[in-house]
Amino acid sequence: MMPTALRSGEERSVPGAGLGPRLQAALLLVEDNAALRQMLSWELGDLGYQVRAAGGCAEARQLIERQPVCCALIDIRLPDGDGRELSAELADRVPGLEIVLMSGAHDLQPDPGLAPHVRVFLRKPVNLQRIHQLFGATGAHPRQCVSNGLRVP
Question: How far apart are CA 59 and CA 4, in angstroms?
Fold first, then answer.
């Protein structure tokens, strides 16, 4: 039986590649390409992330209002906005949020001085092992998640 597509706004942990030790961190994934969003959700879910997947900026804002996250993987070019602006907004709303920006646009250059809330800018295709190492280095897990300034148990 083929797995069903992960719709934006849906969260699920589905077996994937098994790239390393599992983290139990809530992760916001913002990617407008549905197939890539599904693949990343599965692979990140296999690593133990509780993935909250959004197809754009508006949906990401709604998801983060409902459930706290520790880290975010955000595409820069989104149909309803710019991922850099979204990342700045989310960093203001969720202090301590670890953010990785990504883009498949080859003409897009990373800012020489990334905003302090952004750990790194990656070009697509992204290396999940690298992302896992970046978020793993923060030690992010649910007990450290912060939402609207309040610690979440």
Answer: 20
Q: Which residues pair with 150 in a beta bridge?
A: 147
53-73 CB burial, b ≥16 within 10 A, e <16 = bbbbbebbbebbeeebbbbbb
Rounded CA-CA distance 96/89 in Å is 13
Where does 26-151 sit in CATH, by number?
A: 3.40.50.2300
Beta bridge partners of 78: 81
| Contact between 96 and 88 (Cβ < 8 Å) | no
Residue 122, φ and ψ in degrees, nearest 5: -120, 145
Tell me, what's the pLDDT at 135? 81
| Cα distance between residue 97 and residue 35, in whole Å | 26
Q: Write down the pTM of the prediction.
A: 0.75
3-state secondary structure of 74: strand
Q: Which of 61-65, 79-83, 132-136 has the weakest average pLDDT? A: 132-136
The domain locations on the chain are 26-151
CA distance 14 to 6: 10
Edge-first strand listing for the sheet containing 118-123: 50-54, 26-30, 71-75, 98-103, 118-123
